[in-house]
Amino acid sequence: MTAEITTTTNTHGLGKDELLEIDYFLRLTRTLEERLVALFRQTKVIGGLYRSLGQEGESVAAAYALEYEKGDVVQPLIRNMGSILVAGATPVDIIHQYMARATARRVVAS
Fold first, then answer.
1. What is the CA radius of gyration of the chain?
2. Residue 90, in any domain of the structure
């Protein structure tokens, strides 16, 4: 006698490409924060560093659900790095900001 196992996953209407994009931003957020921690330990980060370890999903999901073309904006606080990555910031922009470099540029979501 064999039991048939079925699994269903509710993706809330998101397609495979959207889920992969969300996964990309989750991994990017974690990786970038790990790099920033290394820079912080080398005293290359100016000021404090507040990680979002384990909270990446909240920032990424909230920012992913926004409709930027209709005027939605991201106003991040500490531990919301994932949201600004989704909104269009690059890892280089964020590293420049943490290192207080003049080469950082203002990010405007298009």
1. 17
2. yes
Other Cβ atoms less than 10 A from the Cβ of 2: the count is 4
Domain count, the chain: 1
Q: Comparing C-alpha atoms, which of 59, 2, 67 is closest to residue 33?
A: 59
Q: Which residue range(s) make up the domain with 55? A: 16-98
Tokens of 98: 């943490």
Domain assignment present for 24? yes
**Could you give the CA distance from residue 106 to residue 18 in angstroms, rounded to a whole number?**
26
Separation CA 37–CA 34 (nearest Å): 5
CA 95 to chain centre: 14
For residues 32 and 107, what is the distance between their CA atoms, to the nearest angstrom? Answer: 17
Residue 62 in domain: yes
10 belongs to a structural domain: no
Please list the pLDDT of the chain residue by residue as tens digits (110 residues).
566 766 567 888 888 999 999 999 999 999 999 999 999 999 999 888 888 888 999 999 999 999 999 999 998 888 899 999 999 999 998 998 888 876 655 555 44
